[in-house]
Amino acid sequence: MPPVAAGPDAAQPIITPEAVVLDLERAGVASRTIAYALDLLALAVTLLVVLLAGNVVVGDLGGGGGGALAAVLTSLLVVIAWFCAFETLWRGRTLGKAAMGLRVVGVDGSVVRFQQAFLRAAVGLVDVFLVPVGFVAVVTVLLSPRDQRLGDMAAGTLVVRERSAGSVVAPAWFRPPPGWERYAASLDVTPLDAETYGLVRSYLLRVPDLAANARDHLAVRLANPVATRIGHTPPSYVHPHVFLLCVAAAWQQAHGGGPYGPTPYGAAPYGPAPYGPASYGPGRYGG
Predict the structure, then answer these.
(1) What does the alpha-carbon distance between residue 140 and residue 150 come to, in Å, rounded to a whole number?
(2) What three-state secondary structure class fits 104?
(3) Measured on CA atoms in the order 48, 52, 54, 59, is the torsion positive or negative?
(4) Which of 99, 133, 155, 233 is most buried by its number of CB atoms within 10 A?
(5) Handedness of CA 242, 246, 247, 248 (dihedral sign)
(6) Which DSSP letter does residue 159 get?
(7) Residues 6 or more apart whose Cβ sits within 8 Å of residue 250
(8) Which DSSP letter does residue 132 get?
(9) What pairing do the DSSP bridges indicate for beta strands 25-26 and 102-106?
(10) What is the mean pLDDT of residues 15-35?
């Protein structure tokens, strides 16, 4: 395949696959509790309206026991529908989470799907509403290495903070893997803007937290548009992750970072160089 030229498409913004959120900060117990309390307040009003509207139907069932059972079942269904609908249609947010700047995402950073939202809400009836209320959820979040309650574990989700555009970005320096310094120096990264570099940076910082399949998937999907943007044809033996690491190092050096910074990120998952043929076609990575 001939080298990829940086044509008109190179000026288009790079969109991460499946709207992946690369820069994640997991939410703690306090902010999640407040968000849940706000949701419960809004939900209580909704439930009151639903129960009053269904009072005629409940009365037709006859008997206090039947009415109470119908009210309980209706309440549980509304709770599930509330969280499932909001998190599916509002990209992982509910009213309470939006107020606290939180959202639900998949463990790989992808947008939460209906099945995940439903499973999360259904299991929430156990770990949130089981007496004592909220105890199971709080304990599992505190003990989980990813701050997950049972519903998150079952659905494969995380609750994260949404970063504002003005948030402070901590310094992080990247260097090529040993033996790849000359390749990094050969890359012309001047076509890259700060936003594109920010996507590469976020991916590299998240590598230790990603599962192997999610890491490789993101590396391939991000390396393709970056290679197109800079008009570069990566050799077949250059792994997408190595390519992105070299791009980040070259970009920092080109923007006043000096020789490669003191703290390397991102090389560990693939072991020592050389990384060997990656079985990806030149210029475009498979995936």
Answers:
(1) 7
(2) strand
(3) positive
(4) 155
(5) positive
(6) E
(7) 184, 185, 187, 189
(8) S
(9) unpaired
(10) 72
> What is the model's pTM?
0.56
Phi, psi for 283 (deg, rounded to 5): 85, -40
Determine contact, residues 16/105, Cβ cutoff 8 Å. Answer: no
Distance (Å, whole) CA 211 – CA 260:
27
Other beta carbons within 10 Å of 57: 11
Cβ neighbourhood burial of 149 (10 Å; 0-12, 13-18, 19+): buried
> How many whole angstroms separate alpha carbon 167 and alpha carbon 230?
28
Q: How does DSSP assign 65-86, residue by residue?
A: HHHHHHHHHHHHHHHHHHHHHH
Structure tokens at 201: 């940076």
Rounded Cα distance, 6 and 229, in Å: 6
Digit-coded pLDDT (tens) for 124-139: 888 887 878 888 999 9
Q: How far apart are CA 248 and CA 171, in angstroms?
A: 13
C-alpha to C-alpha distance for 99 and 119, rounded to whole angstroms: 23
Amino acid identity at 33: T
Phi, psi of 161 (to 5 degrees): -85, 140
CA-closest candidate to residue 201, choices 130, 266, 135: 266
Q: Are 197 and 248 in contact (CB under 8 A)?
A: yes
* Token output for 57: 């139907």
Task: Please report, as a single letter, which amino acid is at residue 94.
Answer: T
260-283 confidence digits (pLDDT tens):
544 444 443 333 333 333 333 334
CA 52 vs. chain centroid, Å, equals 39
* 249 within 8 A of 174, measured Cβ to Cβ: yes
Paired strand residues for 157 = 106
Nearest to 232 by CA among 176, 189, 267: 189
Query: CA–CA separation, 97 vs 83, rounded Å?
Result: 11
